Amino acid sequence: MAAIVADLDERRHPFHVAIENWQHDLNIGSIVRSANAFLADTVHIIGRRRWNRRGAMVTDRYQHVVHHDDVGAFAEWARVEGMPVVAVDNVEGSVPLDRADLPERCVLLFGQEGPGLSPEALEAASGVVEITQYGSTRSINAGAAAAVVMYEWCRRWAGPEGASLSPEGRSAP
Fold this sequence. Notes:
Helix content is 31%, strand content 19%. The chain is of the alpha/beta class. The protein has a single domain, classed as SPOUT methyltransferase, trefoil knot domain (Alpha/beta knot), CATH 3.40.1280.10. Mean pLDDT is 89; it is low at 165-173.
């Protein structure tokens, strides 16, 4: 297991994923699994320390997972690290994902199934993006939304070998 983690650490992408966990959302495991599939650097769980690992399908053993007691502690970590926080929620003022800025180094912040992100989390973000939808539902499943946004980050920044690329498709320095 340590050898697998070491190998992944050499190739991880510079984006992080964060999830608010104040309702013990069952989607967290699924988001951790997607973060592993898209080779996110780290998953940050904000709020309750306990989460349902079942959906992670054991990928949490290979994925760095960090806990923050609250949004304030997470926001301070992001500030110190110089990581812009990109919130994902379909709220007033959100920019459609296909037209939004997704920095190469950033944290993609997801909320709970149903209520979405807390006001504190939205305040901590440097921008808010939404996934354009065409049907009658207000939102898609939080785990599915996270996978869509991580895929879009990879489509923009990750090459076929997992190397970061500039938006023009050239290898980034």
